[in-house]
Amino acid sequence: xxxxxxxxxxxxxxxxxxxxxxxxxxxxxxxxxxxxxxxxxxxxxxxxxxxxxxxxxxxxxxxxxxxxxxxxxxxxxxxxx
Amino acid sequence: xxxxxxxxxxxxxxxxxxxxxxxxxxxxxxxxxxxxxxxxxxxxxxxxxxxxxxxxxxxxxxxxxxxxxxxxxxxxxxxxx
Lengths: 81, 81
Known about the structure:
The structure is a homodimer of 81-residue chains.
Chain A: E1 2-9, H1 16-27, E2 33-46, H2 51-66, E3 72-79
Antiparallel strand pairs in A: 1-2, 1-3
């Protein structure tokens, strides 16, 4: 079973990495870019067979390690198979 | 218009960051984790109004800056609005 986790900065939290990308793109000649935000994308291959249990475990992983709940949001997608 | 870009390491490319997460999760007591891969997730807010044109431009951004096509794959989702 595969879990896909998106970890993104909360609205209002400064994202210097996103700003750096935005400026680099502008420097390369890409116009009309209003904002860039960079987050993390984590794919976890699990031995679990129950999707509900897998989601519960991945949620605990997010809270314990993958995300900083003070400044980051996380979203979990569970894909069977 | 918003573009969501996933940049992931190609299959076969070593992912030390993913391995570090996997070992840290095991150290925290999470069992049954077979693999972890970490990628990047980039959200770009564009002034474009044509989804096809937006996709073409974001594809150019991926090739020029966001991804290293030698070792990374990228996937683009365009969301109108």
